[in-house]
Protein 1
Amino acid sequence: MPRRNDIKKIMIVGSGPIIIGQACEFDYSGTQACKALRADGYEVVLINSNPATIMTDPELADRTYVEPLSVAYAEEVIRRERPQALLSTVGGQTGLNLSVDLAEAGILEKYGVELIGAKVEAIKKAEDRLMFKDAMRKIGLETPQSMLITSVEAGFEFAARIGYPMILRPSFTLGGTGGGIAYNREDLVEILERGLDLSPVHEVLAEESVLGWKEFELEVMRDLADNAIIICSIENFDAMGVHTGDSITVAPAQTLTDREYQMMRDGALACLREIGVDTGGSNVQFAIDPKTGRMVVVEMNPRVSRSSALASKATGFPIAKIAAKLAVGYRLDEIKNDITRQTPACFEPTIDYVVVKIPRWQFEKFPGAEPVLGTQMKSVGEVMSIGRTFKQSLGKAIRSLETGKASTADVLLKELIPQRLITPNPERLSYVRFAMENGYTVDQVHEMTAIDPWFLRQIAEIVEYDRVLENHTFESAGKDLLRKAKRDGVSDNRLGRMWGVDPLKVREKRKELGVRAVFNRVDTCAAEFESFTPYLYSSYESECEAEPDSRPKVMILGSGPNRIGQGIEFDYCCCHASFALREFGHESIMVNCNPETVSTDYDTSDRLYFEPLTLEEVLNICDTEKPDGVIVQFGGQTPLNLALPLKRQGVPIIGTDPENIDLAEDRKRFGALLDKLGIPSPANGTATSEQEAIDVARRLGFPVLVRPSYVLGGRAMVIAYDEDTVRRYMREAVVFSQERPVLIDRFLEDATEVDVDALSDGEGVLIAGIMEHIEEAGVHSGDSSCVLPATSISPNALDTIHSYTVQLARALNVIGLMNVQYAIKDSTVYVLEVNPRASRTAPYVSKATGVPLPKVAVALMLGRKLKDLGHLTGGYTSGVLPVPQYFVKSPVFPFNKFPGVDPQLGPEMRSTGEVMGVGENFGEAFAKAQLSAGTPLPNDGTVFISVNDRHKAEAVELGRKFTELGFQLAATRGTAAALQAAGLKVKTVFKVNEGRPNAVDLLKAGSLKLVIYTSTGGHSFSDEKAIRRSAVMYRVPCITTLSGAKAAAEAMVSRRRDPIRVWNLQEIHQKLEMHSAQA
Amino acid sequence: MTDALLALEDGSVFEGRAFGARVQRFGEVVFNTSITGYQEVFTDPSYTGQIVVLTAPQIGNYGANEDDCESPRPFIEGLIVREISSIASNWRSEETADRFLERHGIPAIAEIDTRKLVRKLRIGGVMRGVVGPGDANPQDLIDAARRSPSMAGLDLATRVSTRKRYEWTQPVSRCSPSERLKDAAPPEFRVVACDFGMKRNILRRLVHSGCSVTVVPAGTSAEDILALKPDGVFLSNGPGDPEPLEFQVAQVRKLIGKTPVFGICLGHQILGLAMGGKTFKLKFGHRGANHPVINYQTNKVEITSQNHGFAVDADSIPAATVDITHMNLNDHTVEGLRHRSHPVFCVQYHPEAAPGPHDSHYLFNDFTQLMRGNKR
């Protein structure tokens, strides 16, 4: 069965913004699908609201719609484009849901669009809990027993049947709020009563507990001819009870005999066939009782998933690409294995190494959220590592995390060991090791964690070998000792720390002794066939398979695990750097350890090193590859931190000199530079002690912005309105030192913030975008919506910004990309910070302007001049790039995953992703962005307003606008008085502590449709926190800044005025070309 | 730390850590790429005369148990792995893999760069090798490897076959209460199984499909087999080169047309020779659990378990009388044959799996169907 010729045009649905549980793995899958289908001659129409993705690059699809993933906008795209088919399985849950919605709304039928990949029936059968259980029973597979319970008595009856413990989940509560595990009758009564009360439908799902069982996943693929294969088995290090996205996982499965593995394989294939996923990849999760071997199916995803991305990277088998080909009719045996070239894709990869994935959590950004892991995913990213053994792989994975701490250097407390082992939490792995260092046995740790003894034994052996290493000195360590340490994944850093020497000395010594890293290939076949793709990982084996080329080559350091503040935007830049290098005739070498990304696809770059981004590992690669240049400015803070150390080791960094990158981050030196240039910045100082901090703050005057140096994403950044806050901050919030002082700035209240991205060759400077933030300064730039072009900045200020940017680029001799943040207050333009590197906004600006910023930046880094690159920049080689429409970028927040956290925006970045809205006017673009961000604005109902006194006048203006739009107003006493005084009709609502029904009650009852609640400044009071938290809990849009509220009002105006309309990037950019041709 | 050596006939020496039994053994060094199923590999008699390199790096994790033995004892000459587990973690485990090998006198070496070794074998072809103690003179081991007999031309099947005829009655049993396994069919067919080094799971599968099985030694004549009045004859897998098995080929030739015949692996090669084909030695063999095989009758792909160093030459098959029914998609070698006019068929791979995927279990039913058709 070759490709289908009855289909010409295929629509692909992306997964939208990066959120917890749905990250750049769907950029990986969508990008592969776009590439595969276009390579086969299909026309591809893409819809995805996330501008930071590679897949939304205009080169990847024929028509790219960065539009909301809603039925209305998707229908408009379908109406315009008339695709014959819709691929439902590569856009994550979002893509799957939208596909089902379009089918159910009759839109696919109306326009004659065929759903390919998975049909609606199959999707429903897999997703509907009861239908799934029935289907599994039919084919003889067990699922955990469960029952919907509506009374405590029914709970007792069910308990009599299945026993304790029992899992209880109230239906339709946010993030499973109110659920729990009942270990006995008393627990059952308590949890059930609470759960029934919390559930809006008074229903609790009770399920047999499989906590502590072993958890496995199989990645399955099937073609239309019913050929079905397993790509990869994955075993969870953490037992059942921790979401698989929050579990440390290992591939392949380690503790199953062949009999047991085949039982699971048979089950997975039967499941796939019964659910009826026609083609493509699916994933089936199993739990096995470690005592009896009883096996249950936990769930199946009828689509490409996060695990598929992991399995693809773990095996070298490109699941999403193959899934796309299968969807258009190919058979598995008609597709070649890219890596071996000789053998077909219809086989099961076998691997001769061990892969470890560890999630990356950021509970520290969500004070109030308990750092405990359970059945709801909380991690924001993950790393993967490849090693010849589990120990080696585990060591590499821990290094890849870049948590800033070594695996055993956390602050761990003996008395916490039992608690930290029993309750899954982000630190559990560290505690397992720590427990063993403190004499706990494998059996004891197994008892407390339910982690399989095999994994624990591996860690015990690591701890035992640590003792051996500790009994040596740097001088006494010989070749065998070092070789074993390196083979077991021990880093030079750790050895250096252990022996009190510089890690570089350890490196030098082991290299002299012949203990050098070599590189092995990921080849899908355990070396049975020759591999033609240099997809490599380091090991301490005896043969190197890297086979470096002698062509001119440039290495790109990636951005590591996704985290808040450093996410897909940087992967976008790295991938583009790679594409550009190829185009400019250089070999591209990618180094990264994030399995979710496009950058870690083996065909993105000429050569891929799946390695931790540490000095040790990068130097190892440099030893082998000897690159002509290394690019550090595209991967966010991760490679920047390596820039100077690499340069000191003689590694050729290209682009802006690392010394100048460092200068821009060094408060004192940078301040001096600004003084010299005569560019104003908020008064500031640095402090290395509490007293010093107080002194500085007093000198500057409150409020002040306090933060540590060298961080991304505003980690631990606060606005302090008083000395107490500063004191508390210095005592509790940060670790600082003489080299890393705390930075204190005068905070500019109510200033307008501006982000600028620019390209520079050191002399010529082209400003790519001047983005005006919607939220006022003080909200982290990553958490603020922004608009291109700026809408309210005076021409004078724009000129000033232009001139400052050029001066700064020249002064820092920026070669490549630069980002500057400005604040405008009382018509003075202040520089807040300069980052001589790719910024989070680079992809958004690229998409708005049609100019591929990273590509131009690579050309500059390779030594070209802006004046010679007009063909890439639409003819502009200086000045500011034009934008033909309005483009709003809006952040997406994970507050619904962290119940109890105040959603008030502030200087610490907490958004996980972003969307872009495109419009003829600001309101339209902003409305689309809000819709895409998952906070759609209401059309009618009551708007609740509460603002501080400073903002009362503006609140009146806002209230008037909402009234004109037909909304009712409600407000707390103070605000209500101001609104009434201005003649507006408003309902006064109690604050939480004033009486009932109060604002929270109204939210719960669904009487409020929009909440505008700005912080009163200084400490947030518990009352306003409670209201904002409740808004999140009951899914009512909550706006926490006045500027945001004004934008929302404009968006609502647009919603009434403007029709549903969409634009593809290709037509927008064509408009630009015409524009520049006319100019 | 080096206390064991592997020396190859090409003069290369690999150093590692000894486990299992501390004895010196020689054999043909081959590699198996299956991720699971090391115990089945240890105990598969087809590995007679071979030192096995496992590409899966973590071996021994789930220990060893009686149920997963494919024969009464391990048949490998030696084992080479990247890492051996010091503990066994599985509810069915009875002892560690280390202890299992030691108990049966099999030497093993861990901490070898198995990937380098496998690449060497892939590029250079299988080689003879010796597993010896770490303090041995490497050159002596290399010489010993060079002196050891080659697999080609050796009749190993007779050596490992049962000496006495016996009945096998045990069907496949569940490894977990959740295993989806059809109940065993009631015994309906009398099958004589010629043991050339048979794996137990073949016997279990035959019984499960409704056969009462009499296992006979490799040297049993066609007359003696037919005297047992079988509904069908099964030819088992086994070690080594099929060509020296002239007696067996001659007996099988006599069986064709008299009774349904089903062969697996060596049994397939013997049938291939009996039906007029030729066999040849593969450069490094097929040993693993992920080989794609297309079934031309259904046009579907099966993922198969394989273990063979020799193969039937496709060009040698008399097309007038024999159909090639299955083909390997990796290297296009013959994987299955069927006689056009007689109830005779065979496959090169292992439908009984153990270790490996269960995609090809249907062949046992094909066999009973064939016998049923022949009975009528």
Protein 2
Amino acid sequence: MRTRSLPLLALASAGALLLAGCASGGDASDDGTPRAGGTLTYATGDAEPTCLDPHVGGNYPQALVSTQYLESLVSKDSEGEIVPWLADSWEESDDGLSWTFTLRDGVSFTDGTPFDAAAVAANVAHLQDPETLSSTGYLALQKVTGVEAVDARTARFDLSEPDSALLESLTQPWLAMESPEALQRSQEVNCESPVGTGPFVVESWTKQDRVVLSRNDDYSSPPADAGHDGPAHLDEVVWRFIPDSAARYAALQAGQVDVIDNVQPDTLVAAEKDDSLDEIDAPRPGAANRIELNSGKAPFDDERVRQAFITGVDVNDGIDSLFFGTADRSYSALSSVEPLAYSDESLFDVDPDAAGDLLDEAGWTERDSDGYRTKGGERLSLEFPVSTNQSIPAEQSLFEQIQAGAKQLGIEVVLSPLDLSSWYGALAENDYDLVSAPYTKVGPDVLRILYDTAGITPAPSGYFANLAQLSDPALDQLLTDAAQTSDPDERADLYQQAQQIVLESYTVLPLYDQQNHYLVRSSVTGVRALPPVSAVTLHDASRTD
Amino acid sequence: MTLPVPTEPGRDAAAGRASSTAPPTTDDASSPSPVTPERRRRGRAAAAARWLAGRVVGGVVVLWAVATLVFFAIRLVPGDPAEAILGGPGSQASAEALALVREQYGLGDPLLLQYLAQLGRLVTGDLGTSYSLRTDVGALLLDQLPGTVVLAACALAVAWLIALGTAWWATLGGRVAAAVSSGLEVVAAAVPHFWLGSVLVLVLSTQLGLLPPVSTGTPIGLVLPVVTLAVPVAGFLGQVTRDSLLDAASSPFALSARARGESTSGLFGRHLLRHAALPGLALSGWAFGSLLSGAVVVESVFARPGLGRTLLGAVTLRDIPLVTGVALVSALSYVVVVALGDLAERLVDPRVRAS
């Protein structure tokens, strides 16, 4: 009877395993009050960073995790005001060519190295060293010629020209301060265990699995808007990489993890009914998610065709239905968290008839057998390469709805879902008419990167940020002036004029803010998104179970 | 869907030569034989050596082909690895940084030169440095290998358990059992991993709270991924095993075993299974390949570290050294498993040895 007992044995042992699994669950004394200690597990759906030091490269996944162990000179509060962090105060010189920062006293990196002006200088030098391969931080410091350690607590940034975006740039995690001693190590080692002044310390990194962070018991340098001073409440943070969004949500519901990011619209709707989960909606700063129209080549080199596309295709219904009301329509080139964002809804009123007239006027009068408009035998066809890494499924569906809407107008939209490298390749080849490319940066200076004529000239790789290929000398001048003006009112006025030009050029179809939703188990309190780039900080977090 | 099971071209010839020196019935000790036991042993050893040499040469050719295919497949698709190396989404790399990366990684060299350089490195056993994870590919794969091996081995074992279980039931349970199990096998074989995984998580984790939805690093966390990976393979193995089991059950030797008084389970275990397992064993190489490709999905869904997940990330980022590394390790394990399956076939079936 050996053969009969084998399956039974397997079943029995599986059952035993199940019971063992259940037994290890809930024996929590849940009295609802925050307590010190404990472990919090954060599951991220962003890609695993290639390096835990955000100076190297510089993307959002790095910003998320490094916010737990690195700190910046200044931060931003929820009102958009710059607030002290590792710097107590700062002053711009009259000519705008130098900024003097007074540093916080008595702060040390977790390897014991004191945080002083020499450390600030070493960090800026590290970011500007081509060997570091910094992209985001490097760009943000382009006007900085060097940092002078005037004395231990005074660091002076010298600039080649005034930079009204400097403080906003310095709030970003990609320009955080690291121990100069630790930076001396090889890049490989520093990538594994960067050393900062933050509330947690990188303990270990198991590739494809997790980063373990432990509490920094000597922590004393939270930003001015933090919930409490002193060390974090939690003993340990486990940072897990769970790429599948359904798995992430299932793990949250099962209590295997406490916080998840990159929450998809359908999950948000489901979570609203769940009392054990709280939502944090923290749009990313910089540009809004938008579709850009390539004005550098036909057919969008004709403004009438651009205007026809933008005012002829309705996107609101698609956003409402595909995002289940979790994303608000934007009418601005900038994120709604940017205090200087300017909206003009009237430019985006949808009128298909008027759009059709515009296309007729532009000479797209004939129709081919598929019903698409033609001119001189050529079909009105638009290439739309879509990065499947950067556009969530709901957004890809929205693009399909736009494709259907455009067909009503007689415009063919060819959607090509591409992986990241191929997508970069298509942009480099100027092989696109429509494109959606997110861009995260703190402050309105992002407009200069995205819409200045200089951004049309491709880098040696072929990549360029001005994907609308907008070239307007008046706009360039406004953006240059705004970047050099320290007077807040004048700066606001210049950026408003610049945004008007961008929106009225009909090269940009704003959709919604860069979506950034977190779900937190309600047994955890004090989790908040840190305003500069809306990454979560766990400094104030504690468990109540 | 089905991968051809590579047959060793040298095997039949070698076995044929070996058997020509051996008497037709080796266990008939009383018949006079011109071949001494030593010569017979030497003949067998030579045949085994030839078999092994054939395997090794074939394996090397497979590995070379894999390295070549992977290299050109990745490089011929448009796209720029330099952008991906510098952080991908949200970070616009400076011209200086890109130039440096292209120089460091030799991305500006002519394609053929890059190919030869990579082959040269591979020959010396150097898998290179990952573009995206900036570490030695060999060390990285050694880290990731155990996770996938444990997953695939457990899944293969569970798949065989399920396949034999249903085949046994189909053979002995009458017509209804045969029809039901055949239906189940078709469904199981057709189920995609990602769907099955999601449904299992939804039912067993979210609804019933029985099992953790993502990997915990403990055996309990292994249950869902293993079952997800095993079920489709079990469907295929079950189909072929059941067919040959039914064939064997109706053959004369089954009847004569019965006539000798063999019990039902004895008949199944000692006689029928041996016949029925053969096509399944021959398919084990294919099954292993299917498990490796399934691991890409399963490891991502259940957030388990392993080769499959590494491969997914590496392909997305055009990480040529890492993709090549994973492909070579998979190809190597495939070659080894096919050889082992062949060996197992020889052990189970004397006809293969003697033919």
